[in-house]
Write a structure and sequence with these properties.
The radius of gyration is 17 Å and the shape is globular. It contains 10 helices and 8 strands. The longest helix is centred in the middle third of the chain and has 21 residues, at about 125-145. Helices cover about 40% and strands about 20% of the residues. The chain has an 8-stranded mixed β-sheet with strand order 1-2-4-3-5-6-7-8, sandwiched between helices. The chain has a single domain (about 1-250), classed as Alpha/Beta hydrolase fold, catalytic domain (Rossmann fold, 3-Layer(aba) Sandwich), CATH 3.40.50.1820. α2 crosses α3 and α4 (about 125-145) packs antiparallel against α6 (about 165-175). By secondary structure, the protein is an alpha/beta fold.
């Protein structure tokens, strides 16, 4: 296992292949194993970096809630790219990982060659909708506090994960899984890098968000994966991988 030391917090990461860099960020309550069907399809032509968000998987789960901010996560992503020698990367993520990819573009546009947004959304413009999301995040955290790792949702993507700390998942939910403002959704029309939006045809919760992002991001390409839900890359990997490779082939 490889770890990046982030001021005393160990961030687990893995690098496969060589070539232009693709940074893959996972969903909340999952870990790097989410990408197991995807990495081999890309590693022949790309340097593929997977990692575990702080509080998840094999990464450390610090006790201080201040270690679970979006700013800390953005710093982790910059440090990973620096560590693997990538000035720029195709920044990609599923669900929470996709939202954090949009956050990363806002924070470090010079490091982003292209975006791939999978089964994700851009956040909320209305305070009431954001408050509802954050109330759900707090319920997730409370369940982890009360039940430990037995509180993991029964879903395709969480079934493959291996976590060390339920407390880390709870702190992550109260921290960077929660949302603060409308910066991300307001930024969509100004995105100037090639963007792929992917959603499973059975992922009802993210159809509208995917349509919205594809309509607001200039030149965005949207692909619907058949016979797939939220974890389209796990549930139907062949068309998912083909959509990703087809998009990567269009990049200069």
């Amino acid at each position: 296992m490889a770890y990046l030391d982030r001021h005393g917090v160990g961030i687990w990461y893995d690098v496969q292949g060589s070539g232009p860099t693709v940074l893959l960020s996972h969903a909340y309550s999952t870990d790097h194993r989410l990408w197991d069907p995807t990495v081999p399809a890309l590693a022949d032509r790309f340097q593929v970096v997977t990692w575990d968000l702080r509080g998840h998987g094999d990464s450390d789960s610090p006790e201080d809630p201040a270690e679970y901010t979006v700013e800390r996560v953005m710093g982790d992503m910059v440090a990973l790219l620096d560590h693997v020698g990538a000035d720029t990367a195709v920044v990609a993520g599923l669900s929470l990982g996709g939202f954090l990819s949009l956050e990363f573009l806002l924070a470090h546009p010079e490091r982003v060659r292209a975006l791939m947004l999978m089964s994700t959304g851009p956040g909320f413009r209305k305070d009431s909708a954001r408050d509802g999301w954050n109330a759900t995040a707090e319920r997730f955290a409370q369940r982890y506090d009360e039940k430990g790792l037995d509180a993991l949702p029964k879903a395709t993507e969480t079934a493959v994960a291996r976590h060390r700390s339920a407390a880390g998942l709870a702190r992550a939910s109260r921290g960077y899984f929660s949302q603060r403002d409308a910066r991300v959704i307001d930024s969509l029309p100004s995105i100037a890098v090639p963007t792929l939006v992917v959603v499973g045809d059975n992922d009802a919760g993210y159809q509208a968000a995917s349509d919205y992002m594809a309509s607001k991001i200039p030149g965005a390409r949207k692909v619907v994966i058949p016979d797939a839900g939220h974890a389209a890359n796990l549930e139907n990997p062949e068309p998912f991988n083909r959509a990703v490779l087809d998009f990567l082939d269009t990049l200069p």
